[in-house]
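Please check this:
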Amino acid sequence: MILAIDMGNSNIKIGVVDSDGKVIEERVTTAADKTSMEYAMDIISILAFHGINKSSIEGAVLSSVVPPLTGVISTAIRKVTGKSPLLVSNKIKMSIKLNRMKYPEKVGADLLAGAEIAYNSYKSPVIIVNMGTATTITIVNEQAEYLGGVILPGLKVSLNSLSNSAAQLPYISLETPGSVIGNNTIDCMRSGILYGNAAQIDGIIERMEKELSCKATVVATGGLAKFVVPLCSHSIILDETLLMKGLLALYNKNKEV
């Protein structure tokens, strides 16, 4: 089994993945002022909670979209496992090709991991919806070419912005309203955010398929996807462990034999 870590702007996903497809995943808050030792203790606590001995970790892989913290987390991984992690970037071996991208070195490591496993696991062309701090919708064609996609404000970013900017609009929890038409402020906000995001995703899928001139498989992941996917009109596969499995796939493709 390997230690797989995805560092995002809001959360860090810390996972353990094995070749049988078993995935353990927990999240800690991304904090710029935490030391490598503090992050190492986070990793150790998660391993201990799930009864995993660190000696059973054969290697590690890290995807990061927070460059200032990449070195800190890498050091934390080495402190825990004694091994340097594989850093996901456009320079490592992968099945997907970045020849269609203007700046391949700028493609997010998390997007590469998701695209890699989605292309290898689902019928292509495949559209990957990743709902985190930002919502990204990317696509890989039948020739394994990563074509790019769109970046949207994440669901919670939009919701918090709404509450911050309007004095009479409260901070609310995410629950699916009974109907699109809300009859009170909170349900109106929930409906706008959830159905609005669903309609946004549906609309972009339609436009992507029109540009491709064919239908695509659509797979969604990310902590917020479970709230929105059931409200979409398209058939979307919810795969909450997509990223962890993608990191395992990239690790296996690049590990020294």
Observations:
- Residues 195 and 231 are 7 Å apart (CA to CA).
- The beta strands are 2-7, 11-17, 23-29, 59-64, 86-87, 126-131, 134-140, 146-153, 217-221, 237-238.
- The mean pLDDT is 92.
